[in-house]
Write a structure and sequence with these properties.
Keywords: DNA recombination, DNA-binding, Transposition. The protein is an alpha/beta fold. The chain contains six helices and five strands. It has a five-stranded mixed β-sheet, with helices on both faces. A hairpin with a 4-residue loop joins strand 2 and strand 3.
Length: 196
């Protein structure tokens, strides 16, 4: 977009812009989104940061909307508790169904928070969250891995909000419908960036 307008900027300039404006834009985009579905899919994946094994915990609703991401060094009950507390605070409501893999930390964290949500877990039940990792892996390859846990957390928070706005994975009926979805996403982007 910048090259079309005759502007020549370096990667460092764009990184500074993202650092300065990214969180503001992401917050505005999240505010404009409709309420998430009441079925949450939780999963974690391994990410290598400077040779150290870290875990990226993700929450996705049943529509494929990324609810939140959290980079942590552990894969235990305390890490699951931290993710669930952050989700409950950010979303403002508790889910009716939690879908996870067979990691027992989710059930222990749910019991401690006294969640009344039905907990489903088992083979292939959590494919929604498993497939949502592909977007992160693609970005991780392009960036030649994450440099630190803090920068990964900051980047992924912004990336999730923008991905939710522009992700048109619902199979449109026609090209006209696709154009309508793209126009709505562009309008959300205009409102979010104008407010900042």
């Amino acid at each position: 977009m910048l090259a079309e307008r005759g502007l020549d900027v370096s990667y460092e300039t764009i990184r500074r812009w993202v650092r300065k404006f990214g969180l503001i834009y992401a917050r505005n985009l999240r505010r404009l989104r409709p309420r998430a579905a009441e079925t949450w899919h939780l999963d974690e994946m391994v990410v290598s940061i400077q040779g150290q094994r870290m875990f990226l915990w993700r929450a996705v609703d049943s529509e494929g909307e990324i609810l939140d991401m959290l980079v942590q060094s552990r894969r235990d009950k305390a890490a699951a508790l931290r993710l669930l507390r952050k989700l409950l605070k950010k979303q403002g409501f508790a889910p009716t169904v939690l879908v996870t893999d067979k990691l027992r930390s989710y059930a222990a964290a749910g019991r401690e928070l006294r969640l009344s949500a039905h907990h489903e877990h088992g083979l292939r039940q959590n494919n929604r969250a498993e497939n949502s990792h592909q977007v992160v892996r693609r970005r991780e390859r392009r960036m030649r891995r994450f440099k630190s846990a803090g920068s990964a957390q900051c980047f992924l928070a912004v990336h999730a909000a923008i991905h939710n706005a522009f992700n048109l994975q619902r199979h449109p009926i026609s090209r006209a419908t696709l154009r309508l979805f793209r126009a709505a996403a562009a309008q959300q982007w205009q409102i979010a960036t104008a407010a900042a």
